[in-house]
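Re: your question about Nuclease SbcCD subunit D

S., sorry for the slow reply, the queue was backed up all week. Below is exactly what I fed in.
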Amino acid sequence: MRFLHTSDWHLGRSFHRVGMLGAQAEFIGHLVSTVREREVDAVVVSGDVYDRAVPPLAAVELFDDALHRLADLGVPTVMISGNHDSARRLGVGAGLMGRAGVHLRTEPSACGTPVLLPDAHGDVAFYGLPYLEPALVRDEFGVERAGHETVLAAAMDRVRADLAARPAGTRSVVLAHAFVTGGEPSDSERDIAVGGVASVPAAVFEGVDYVALGHLHGCQTLTDRVRYSGSPLAYSFSEAGHRKSMWLVDLAADGAVTAERVDCPAPRPLARLRGTLEELLADPALAPHEEAWVEATLTDPVRPADPMARLAERFPHTLALVFDPDRPPDDPDVSYARRLAGRDDRQIAEDFVAHVRGGAGPDPHERTVLRDAFDAVRADEAAREVAR
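Result:
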């Protein structure tokens, strides 16, 4: 069976205030063309179809158009909800859509119930594991402590139990939306850390032939059978070095996997430039970036006058401007943002405790209190998304 693995469409998202709906529509057209030209048997979409729980009407219309075009080709599609989606909204009409070959898997309780798609060698069981917010699904899976690894392990136990009851030789594909250990994040994914732990080991998914992951925006191979497709478009300048693509996966009769990257169209290249304003304006080596979307980091010791307007004369698509003056590390004016770079909310809170105590950080009990407080806030936010 040949299937196309994609994820993280984020329909309705913009890029630094630039609307991306046209580029997203171009991607959908590219997806449909690939399905037709490469004789694809199925499409899997591993979550974050939309960028937010209540997407704009134009994004919903584009999603509707994509489903109709895929259904017209007679190619079944399996989709799960991601942490940006409203599972309830995305799952509306799932039963009726399934009759047209569009299989939406948004309910955690259905993790062990596959979509069965046959080919010349028998059935392939596609199991959809939507994004599992630990605090909201712990009762469903009967786990004592809410955590990403515990709930995903419980969901995979259901998958393996169902698969074991099926005829020998049944091949299996799991769709999941999670941060798996070894994956490389970017700046555009929403943090899903719980209990200070965001990632789960790839070993959680043992026992199936292929794992189609979503959530991280870079296309990545964790093992030959566990892969991220990444987002089809860049949604932050941290993705400037990404090659945006989808995985074209061939699943052989014996479960062997071969995968090929299929590139996605890019509306405009990205460039991250760094230097003084005069250097950026004068350097001839930067000519290839003059039509790119640009993030410029200025290192001038003193902020120059009208930097954005002057940059736009050479780089008309400059979207982001960062000031990072070159100063000695011990300079008292080193920015607060630089001191916080790369630290998560819990680490910042612990640093604050150490600061107000003259260097004495929180003890183990206090760390647990802080962790639980952040988890409670995250769970409350997730519950509000579900209720919207």
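The longest helix spans residues 364-387. The chain has two domains: 2-263, 270-326.

Happy to talk it through on Thursday.
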